[in-house]
Design goal:
The complex is a heterodimer of chains A (321) and B (297). With 321 residues, chain A is mainly α. Chain A has a two-stranded antiparallel ribbon with strand order 1-2. In chain A, helix 3 crosses helix 13, helix 4 packs antiparallel against helix 12 and helix 10 packs antiparallel against helix 11. The longest helix of chain B has 15 residues. The chains are: A mainly alpha (321), B alpha/beta (297). At the A-B interface, helix 10 and helix 11 of A face helix 3, strand 8 and helix 4 of B. The structure holds adenosine-5'-diphosphate (ADP) and magnesium ion. The site of magnesium ion has 4 residues of chain B, from helix 2.
């Protein structure tokens, strides 16, 4: 029935009936409906058991959820995440640039850094930092191999629990984010740098204005993975008896014996933080996809508004899509 | 389109610049026709050599293009055309020889009896005098057409944003894309993208424009909209060096056609000389492959 068919057959083939008055009926998807019903039933069952099983002790959860000690722990968790997240990514950016530089020394220093911090357990790193005073009694800043000292202090007074926690988390985070940022930078076409050089744009501006904004598209999903991991990862500093969220609930349930409800308190807070971060992630990624897509997809809010205006407020029209 | 407008005041006769291809233009192709009163943009390439590893890609190339001249470089793939263009703005370092623009060395300075490579900052400054248009456009995809055009004036030349925008819109108008100023490159056709890239190269007000196969990545029906813009530029008094496989275009706009093969300039001359009476067998055999039989001088 193609155009290649010789005219003779075209003449003998039956005339095409006129379908112009027929109504269009979209295909039905019965299995999609079956799937939807099954999943909805499953979700309802889980929700029901959560509500009706008294052992979840929702009353206890509610009581502790906003207790002062828990909120203080939450703030410490957010503080640790923010500080080591930001410092980790700044240091990671520098490490990534070093790794991509033409200097063999910078490349190997950066490589070695990532190698060491990715191959030792974070737990060990944290304990090492905290016990640095055992290895080096004093920390001083001066000119190496001379007696000139600008600054000197006892290690144990310098490295508090907080400092050890931030140091450990930051350096560990830097090692991972360096690789993420490097991957993002490598994903940008070489021609971009060439065009920018040919236009006389200085090296630093080439990185920050041309390459990084494009690299962000590849960096962001992984970066948010890391940050979300870090939120929960901060719970590891309980080994330093640092009273962030997780350590705080442990202390409480050791006293009250309400283990499950208190773990639930911490979990719910982690869920809240992660959800907020996911919303940020959505809008930040959208911002950096400017120009990468021909048209940006609607945000959930825009979709809801459109749904409301086309399906609820106005009478639906055929081409309302 | 009104590319001529900006600098046309300097030309005398209305049919200025048309002379290159028409038989009446027996004025020597070199130096450029007298009606192009360009005073800047003299390019002198002297015995330039360049190797990648063991292979010598440029084997002592010398070429002079006068201010306002239009040189078209043709030749088989891999003959070193792109490499030669890239040495002119020091994107590629030469291994021997030197290049001057209006007498000023590109990428080097004389100290004692040595040529020392310039610092990055000074090289970037030199590059602002040399516009370059790439085969693959290389527009910045995260910036709109206008933002692409004004990026270098703002960042490299420290012009004010308002001034750069005004000039940017003028340039987009010149290439016929004023109404697409806010479009992102991916929302533009290939021909439109390349025209934005030309506007971007013009934004620094360069003395010299380098084109590396500006139409090779385009669908055939889009080639002419880009060539038309370059044709207009050829009349404007900016020195153009164009690598292309568009022989009809070369015949129309070139003052000088340069045939390169295996890292050397085999011969150069006016379009008439090169296309109608090539002296060298290599030139003749190349043209017999690339020029369609109907092509006539
Ligand atoms: N950066 C590079 N490294 C190694 N070889 C290269 C590089 N750039 C170009 N070449 C080689 O140099 C030769 C000339 O290339 P090019 O100047 O791009 O030729 P043309 O533009 O005439 O097709 C080719 O053989 C190519 O493979
Ligand atoms: Mg090439």
């Amino acid at each position: 029935m193609s155009a290649i068919a010789p005219p003779a057959t075209a003449e003998t083939s039956p005339p095409t009936p006129d379908y112009s008055e027929y109504k269009l009926v979209p295909a039905r998807h019965p299995w999609r409906w079956v799937g939807t019903v099954l999943v909805a039933a499953g979700v309802a069952a889980i929700a029901w058991s959560l509500v009706t099983n008294p052992r979840w002790e929702w009353g206890v959860v509610a009581e502790w959820f906003t207790a002062q000690s828990v909120v203080n722990g939450l703030i410490e968790t957010l503080k640790l995440t923010a500080i080591s997240g930001v410092l980790g990514f700044v240091l990671g950016f520098i490490l990534a640039l070093m790794r991509l530089s033409a200097s063999p020394l910078l490349v190997s220093v950066s490589w070695t850094f990532s190698w060491i911090f990715r191959s030792t357990p974070l737990l060990v790193q944290l304990l090492l930092w905290y016990n640095l005073g055992y290895l080096y009694e004093k920390i001083s800043l001066g000119i190496p191999f001379t007696d000139v000292r600008f600054f000197e202090a006892q290690t144990t007074t310098l490295i508090s629990q907080f400092a050890a926690a931030v140091l450990g988390l930051t350096l560990n985070q830097a090692a991972y984010s360096a690789e993420i940022i490097r991957g993002g930078i490598l994903s940008v076409d070489q021609g971009q740098l060439e065009a920018a050089s040919a236009l006389g744009i200085p090296a630093w501006k080439r990185s920050t204005r041309i390459v990084l904004p494009q690299a962000m598209r590849a960096i962001l999903p992984n970066a948010f993975n890391e940050i979300i991991g870090l939120v929960k990862g901060t719970s590891i500093v309980y080994v330093l008896a640092y009273s962030e969220l997780f350590y705080t609930v442990q202390v409480i349930y050791n006293r009250t014996q309400q283990v499950l409800p208190l773990l639930l308190v911490a979990t719910l807070w982690y869920v809240v933080i992660t959800s907020v971060l996911s919303v940020f992630q959505y809008y930040i990624e959208r911002h950096f996809s400017k120009g990468a897509l021909r048209t940006l997809p609607l945000t959930p809010l825009q979709k809801a508004r459109k749904f409301f205006t086309t399906h609820v407020a106005a009478t639906p029209t055929k081409d309302a899509r | 389109m009104s590319i001529i407008a900006a600098r046309k005041e300097s030309t005398t006769t209305p049919q200025a610049g048309e002379s290159a291809g028409v038989p009446a233009g027996t004025t020597a192709a070199r130096p450029a026709p007298a009606d192009k009163k360009a005073t800047r943009g003299q390019v002198d390439i002297t015995n330039v050599r360049k190797s990648f590893g063991a292979t010598e890609v440029l084997k002592g190339v010398s070429l002079s293009v006068p201010p306002g001249g239009v040189a078209v470089i043709v030749g088989p793939s891999g003959s070193g055309k792109s490499t030669l263009l890239r040495t002119i703005n020091h994107l590629e370092k030469v291994d021997g020889g030197y290049i001057t623009i209006d007498g000023e060395l590109v990428g080097y300075e004389v100290r004692g009896n040595k040529l020392h490579e310039l610092r990055e900052k000074d090289i970037l400054k030199q590059r602002t005098h040399i516009g370059m248009v790439f085969q693959s456009f290389n527009l910045f995809p995260h910036l709109t057409a206008l933002e692409n055009v004004i990026e270098a004036p703002i960042v490299a030349q420290k012009r004010s944003k308002a001034e750069a925008r005004k000039r940017g819109l003028e340039l987009l108008d010149r290439v016929g894309l004023k109404d697409r100023a806010d479009a992102y490159p991916r929302q533009l056709s290939g021909g439109q993208q390349q025209r934005v890239a030309i506007a971007r190269a013009l934004a620094l007000d360069p003395k010299i424009l380098l084109f590396d196969e500006p139409t090779s990545a385009l669908d055939p029906e889009l080639v002419n909209e880009v060539l038309d813009v370059i044709r207009e530029l050829a009349k404007s008094g900016t020195t153009l060096i164009v690598v292309t496989h568009e022989m009809g275009f070369a015949r129309d706009v070139a003052d000088t056609v340069v045939f390169m093969d295996q890292g050397q300039i085999v011969e150069s001359g006016t379009p008439q000389e090169i296309f109608a009476n090539p002296r060298e067998e290599r030139t003749r055999s190349f043209f017999s492959k690339v020029i369609e039989p109907a092509f006539n001088i």
